Amino acid sequence: MILTIKDETMTGNVLNTVELDFLEDIVTVKNIIKNRVIAEVNLFNQQKSVIFNGLVQPSEAERQLNGSFKVQKHKTIDAEKQVYIALNAFQQNAFFVLINDQQVESLEQAVVLNRDLNISFVKLTPLVGG
Q1: Can you list the alpha helix ranges (DSSP code H) found in 8-114?
Q2: What DSSP element (H or E) covers 95?
Q3: Whole-Å CA distances, 42 to 52, 53, 60, 101, 102
Q4: Amino acid 130: pLDDT
Q5: CB under 8 Å, gap of 24 or more: what pairs does 33-41 form?
Q6: How far apart are alpha carbons 65 and 114 in whole angstroms?
Q7: pLDDT tens-digit series, residues 68-108
Q8: Global pTM?
Q9: pLDDT value for 12
């Protein structure tokens, strides 16, 4: 099943979409995050870009105003490392996962996949100077 996952602002504006293909009918939130991060990293590594528009910031990358990350010189990003960073960020409340507008509390929460499922990620941006 192909799902469209959205990155949204706190006000509901969509910033980015990612399509993921799942073979299972039931997955955990951990698997959703893992598959999303791997797909983003693979796309970045294939495109040879310097701009990474992913869930979490890669090492040695600079945050851009639009929420993307600029890699100083293109190098291959390690997907496994990014998955680890993303799962840790979820546990530290750096971003929220909403499923059908309900906030997910656990990485192990089971999600029954269907065409009407609405999955959103809301990144929290740190305040500057406070």
Answers
A1: 29-47, 79-91
A2: strand 95-99
A3: 11, 12, 18, 28, 29
A4: 41
A5: 33/83, 33/86, 33/87, 33/90, 33/97, 33/107, 34/83, 34/86, 34/87, 36/5, 36/86, 36/121, 37/79, 37/82, 37/83, 37/86, 38/79, 38/82, 38/83, 40/82, 41/77, 41/78, 41/79, 41/82
A6: 34
A7: 666 666 677 889 999 999 999 999 999 999 999 999 999 99
A8: 0.84
A9: 81
d(CA 112, CA 11): 26
Contact partners, residue 9, CB within 8 Å, separation at least 6: 15, 122
Question: And the tokens for 112?
Answer: 């029954």
Contact indicator for 41, 120 with CB cutoff of 8 Å: no
Place of tokens 């993307």: 68
Enumerate the H helices of the chain as residue ranges: 29-47, 79-91
Amino acid type, 24: E
Strand order in the sheet with 102-103: 14-21, 2-8, 119-123, 95-99, 102-103
pLDDT tens-place string over residues 19-71:
999 999 999 999 999 999 999 888 888 887 777 777 876 766 556 555 566 66
